[in-house]
Every structure is written in C-alpha cells, then in structure tokens.
Specification:
The complex is a heterodimer.
Chain A (H helix, E strand, L loop, with lengths): L4 H4 L2 H31 L4 H14 L1 H18 L2 H8 L4 H14 L12 H15 L1 H22 L4 H16 L1 H4 L5 H23 L3 H22 L1
Helix pairs in contact in A: 2-5, 4-5, 6-7, 11-12
Chain B lengths: L1 H38 L6 H41 L2 H16 L6 H36 L5 H5 L1 H16 L1 H18 L1 H6 L1 H31 L1
Classes of the chains: A mainly alpha, B mainly alpha.
Chain lengths: 235, 232
Amino acid sequence: MENFQGMANDMIMFALCLIPIILVLGQSAIYIKMGMKRTKELNLDQKNVKKAITNSAVFSILPSLPIVITVVALMPSLGKFIPWLRLSVIGSAAYETICAEMTIQGFGYSGLGDSSMTATVFTSVVWVMCVVSCVWPLTNAIGLKFYDGKVKQSRKSGGFMKVASGAMMIGLMCVMCVPRLVNVDDKVGMAVCAVAGISAVALDWVADKFKLKSLSDFSFALAMILGMVTAVIVS
Amino acid sequence: MENNNKTSNYSGNVHTVGIISSLLVIASLVIVPLGAQIIFGQTVDWGPTLGAMGKALIIFGPVAVIEFLSYLPTIGAGGQYLSFTTGNVMNMKVPSAATGRRMVGVESGTEEGDVISMISIAVSSITTTAIVFLGMVVGSQMLPLLEHELLAPAFNNIMPAIMGALGVPMIVKSIKLASVPVAISVTLTVVWGYSFVSANQGKFMIMFLAVCLAWAYFLFKRAESKKTSEEQ
C-alpha cells in the first residue's frame, strides 16, 4: 500500500483545499461590503469604522502565529495542505489533533506522526476532520435565523435584554479568563493573565484621564503584548 | 417606516448570505475528501472511519451547540456566521469584535455593535487566512524562529494574555454584575483545579451563562423596584 505523503503533498490536494478557503474569503468580503454600507445607514463615524478595520487586521497578526506553528507542526504527519485547510476553515489546534489522532489509532496505527500511515488511512483522516467540523456552520444554517429573531424581539422589548448580552460576556470570561488568574499550577500563565488584565485597565484609565484616543484604541493589543513579554521575563 | 424596512432588509440579507455561504462551505469541505478519494483512487474503510466520526461528534457536537447559543448576543448574526466558518472564535474573533466595538463607541447587543462585530471579524478572518497561507508556504523556514527558546514562552501564553486583556477590564467595568459569577468561578477553580474546569469548559460555559443571566436579572429587578419606590 502506498504511503500517504505523495497524496498529501500533491498539487491536486492543494487545489481541493483551496476551494473552501476561497469561499471563506468570499464570505468575509461580502460581509465587509454589506457592513460598510450599513454603517453609513446607521450614521456611524466612518473614520472610527476604518480605525476599527485597521485595528482588527493588526490585532490578528500576533494570535495567528501560534496557528502557523500548529500548521507547520502538523505538516510532517498530515502533509502540507490539510493542516493549512483545517486551521483556516472551522479549525482549532485541539480539534484537528484529536480528530486526526482518533482516526489514525482507529486503524491500528500509533497515532499522529506514524509515518507508515497509508494513503487510504489518510483519506479517512481527511473525511473525519472535514465532515465533523461541518457541525458548526450546520447549526447556524439550521437555527441561527430563528434564534436571532428571538434575541432581536427580546431586545426590542428593552429592559433586561439590554444587560443580558453584557452578562453573557461576563459568563464567558468566568470560564475563559478567571480560572487562569487563579491557576496556581501554571504560575507563568497566572502572571501573564494578571499583567495583561491590569495593563488593559491601567492603559484605559490613562487614556480616559488624559483624553488619549489612540492609546485607548490600542490598549487591548498593548496589554496583550505586555502579557506575552511577562511570559518571556518570568520563564 | 423606511428605517424599519432598511433594518429588516439588512437583517434578511445577513441571514441569506450566512445560510448560503455556510452550506457552500459545508459542501466544499465534503468535496475535499470525496475529491481526493475519487482522483487518487482510494477505497475508504467506512467501519473505522464512521467510528472515528461518531466519537468526534460525541465530543464536539455539544460544544458546537453550546457555542451556537453563547456567542450570538455578543457578536451578532453576521459575526457568528463568519466565526463558525473560520474557527478560532474565543482567541481571535471575540476579542477583535470587542476592540472594534470599543473603537467605534458602540455596545454589544445593539444593531451598531452587531455590524461593527461583523466587519471586525471578517477583517480578522482575511488577515489570519493570509498569514496562515504564508506560514504554509514558508513554514519549515519559519519554525526555528517561531519556536526559538526566547520567544516560545510568549507564544505558549498567548491565550492567558488575550483573556486577561479582554476579561479583566470587562469584569472591573461591571464589578457588581461580575461579583457573584467571578466568586463562584474562583471557588470552583481553587477547589477542583484548573485542569478539571478546563476539561469541562462546555458544561461550565452553560452553567455560567445561566448564573450570570440569573444574577443580572436579580440586580435588574432590584434596581427597578428601588426606582419605583423612589418615584412613589
């Protein structure tokens, strides 16, 4: 049986992987166009909207680098193109490694990194990684319009719904942020989270006190970088 | 009247684009393994393949449903359609939406907030896709730099950095609203450990959304009755 590397690194694989990526880029471009038109209808300050766009692009650079590391780390096990596809479309490092590992082990191999994997098994890995990820956009396609209608209806009735979305965001932070602040098993992570958080609050306070709009605009990115620098210092 | 028509057209269009693009992305993701199977003449052993799919769905299916319910009020419909086709929602899309809204001076849960979230997330998606593509092309040359022992701690701690910078200001700004949920979160983490909380993130997310909504409702009702008695 042929080894998977030839198939995984073939330009046909590249062409197949390019299709979903182009669709995702197209979706983004359409939404930007629709959104920009809507901001004008809502009389939002266009200068600030353009700043938000620049900020979003600049902010996304650093967090993309760990994704690149994951793509490159998975290349020896899954070829050049499947990690690229998977981490660009409905991907996350955890999801990709778990799905790939489960499939490969299901065929009796040791796991990701087993270079004796055949092209047939590789095809199964691609099936599992691609099909299971469809569950996310499928929930949206089936239920988001209905759910959004209900949320908008509740917002119109005013009152409590105005505070509900802020409350839900706090709920997310109670799972994603607060536990990291008290994770005594990872003191570096604790320090990073605390420094980034305190920096963000301090930078916002300074920006507010001295009316420095540019500092306010970039306080999040600066705080994140200060957190990361803390990791380098305390490690 | 004209404004209502424009709002309803816009909202309808967001969903039309979202549903069609989501279905197209799903179809294109099926084409990848199907096309590879046909072009390379591979025969798939469906037994273990479907077994692995089933196991993965048991783990990730509930996560998808929880995320479906959680993110909409903060990033809006357009933001959610985009986020669920590109991934990396908590570490990239939610923070970029939050900073975009702050720059424009709009709140989450408003029409303006939803539009800005959508635009910010779309820009973030394009940027990430471009960088990951470059990474794929020059990947092996970049890896020694990205994994350098000096830089490695920084990249290994990007999630704590993002979550700290995003979460702490939010909690400080709404300290009353956050007080009880944060106290519960700290207690659970100290008692059960971070590993347990992290491994059961999906369940805790549902729990904290319920706790936060209940506590927010209590504060809201208390403020309303205080206002009513002051007016009397």
